[in-house]
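Per-residue structure
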Amino acid sequence: MQQPVLVIGAGQAGLAAGFYLRKAGASFVIVDAGRRIGDSWRARYDSLTLFTPRQFSTLPGLEFIGNRELYPDRDEFAEYLETYAARFSLPVRLGHLVARLVQLDDGAFEATFQNGETIKADDVIVATGGFQVPIIPELVRRFGGEVLQLTTATYRNPHHLPDGPVLIIGDGASGRDIAIECRKLQSVILAAGGPRKLFPERLLGKSIWWWLNLAGVLRAPADSWIGRRLKSADAFPDRGNGNTSLAKRGVRLASRLVDASGDEARFADGSSANVRTVIWAVGYRDDSSWLQVPGGTDQNGTFLHREGVSPVKGLYFVGRPWQRNRASALIMGAGPDAEQIVAQLLGRRQEAAAR
């Protein structure tokens, strides 16, 4: 008798996988560490809005209520996820943090949760997302104790910061958004790693995402010419946070941070600045320490897969950045990627049952 599919993570990727498993009539359970569905979004900084407008921020089978052209905030999307799970009666077990996943001698998997419970499964879909542990470079040790240091995971809003200059390291979408809101109360320096490419938010009256989706750019395979160009550029929409806009708002744009001492930050162009707060916004890394399955990760702890299929039989992924294409890291890509993975998983089960 086959055991239920175990889906780890009840974010957009895990719920999308649940939708297709439910649609196929498969037995499954979704586990999540949070107390509520959507807590991973509620834990982000207060002013966070999604990368894409509502029309491109939906999961299969349920529209996002509201203006299709505007960007939902973190709480709206968290509520959408809760509504989604309830609408399709998805079996989610909250408060279940996976501490360890191993593969047994018979090929099945056993997950041990932080509360000591265990569950066995013949197939596992890892849907833990690509934003797990903030990257904190070694330079963090160079600043003195008088400097408050935060990450995009621990920063909430500018009202919680002490008086004094704020240095934000990393000029991605989050770094730029945080720089703009902090500038309302403090002087702000934004340190970039190199030239940043932004594309227009709208073109001929329509969202740039509409055009990219229409042209098929977002569905281009990761190893295609277009995919490689997109990955290299790592561009995102200019929503009023381009370099010119930042400068007009009084944000000082600095070159790459190369050293620090006490409260002094030193940059690649030879300039320096004294700061009171540092916010690290240089990206995230995976926490794969719980995945104790040989062949599931490489020697650096990176999840191993090809388009979401692990070399380990019965192990799958959904929601990995560039899992299949640029859309894979966006809400709009969760559904298509989940549909493909669930089809492969169930297809393999049917083949095994027919033997």
Notes: The two ends are 14 Å apart (CA to CA). The chain has a mean pLDDT of 93.
